[in-house]
Design a protein that fits this description.
single chain; elongated; mainly alpha; 8 helices
Length: 272
């Protein structure tokens, strides 16, 4: 998918606008047929390659509800974007990223309430039938009331036990669904945390690399400065050595006076 869609701000916002056009009933969802028509309407360079359209739709609609919500739609097309960036773009266009999850929870609660209401109604009806049956039996079979009532109580007890069992199975199914919902929410939270940690690690790595380059540059400049200073000192030392090696100017008058003084003292001349 990353080969067909570039995760840029312009293409992201353009895709959201196209989705809004397809979402005629404003429920933040489009059908598989609408998604297929949208993909086929794209230019050839932007079309999906390497995977069949059916495989892509199964990825965006794993529960095969026949509908694809905006959040899954964008996450499937823009895999290089973080969920935070996609959510920010949705909010910017007036979409509620938590709408589907909230509606799913509301639907679950509604289904649970309807199931409890249905159970209560059936239970009340069963009790009502039980009272009517008990009255009829007492009226018709007064002489044999004890064995018949015992049998009746057994039948009622079995019926109630069966009803309770069915209710327990229904509650167990609802409990498993809640566990699945919690596991899915935990997995999503873990994925968000992992993505954030990876982003933070990348940022730190970049900062460390920049700091390393900065220190290397400082060391290079320092070495260049030290080398220039060393060459300057060597040059000064060479100049001093050259100056010291040059002969002193000859003073003719001074030399004659000294020679004369030597002659007067010792009778010989020593040239210094």
């Amino acid at each position: 998918m990353a080969e067909q869609f570039q995760a840029t701000s312009a293409s992201l916002h353009s895709t959201i606008k196209n989705f809004k056009v397809l979402d005629s009933d404003n429920d933040d969802k489009i059908s598989r047929d609408q998604f297929r028509e949208y993909i086929q309407s794209l230019p050839k360079k932007d079309r999906i390659e390497g995977r069949s359209l059916e495989e892509v739709m199964n990825t965006l609609d794993p529960d095969t509800t026949g509908m694809i919500n905006l959040k899954a739609f964008l996450k499937g097309l823009f895999i290089d974007l973080t969920e935070e960036e996609i959510i920010a773009a949705m909010k910017e266009h007036g979409y509620d990223p938590d709408r589907e999850e909230r509606e799913r929870e509301q639907q679950r609660l509604a289904n649970q309430a309807a199931a409890e209401k249905s159970w209560q109604e059936n239970y009340d009806a069963l009790l009502s039938d039980e009272r009517m049956l008990r009255t009829e039996i007492n009226a018709e079979l007064k002489s044999e009331s004890k064995p018949i009532e015992a049998h009746y109580n057994t039948v009622i007890a079995e019926a109630l036990a069966t009803f309770e069992k069915e209710r327990g199975e229904q509650s167990e199914a609802e409990r498993r669904q809640r566990e699945l919902d919690r596991e899915r929410a935990a997995a999503e939270a873990e994925a968000k945390a992992a993505a954030k940690a990876a982003e933070e690690a990348e940022r730190k790595k970049k900062e460390e690399e920049e700091e390393k380059n900065r220190k290397a540059e400082e060391d290079r400049k320092k070495k260049e400065k030290e080398e220039a200073e060393r060459k300057r000192k060597e040059e000064e030392e060479k100049k001093k050595a050259a100056a010291a090696a040059q002969p002193k100017p000859f003073d003719a008058n001074g030399a004659d006076s000294k020679d004369k003084a030597k002659k007067d003292e010792g009778g010989c001349c020593v040239v210094m």
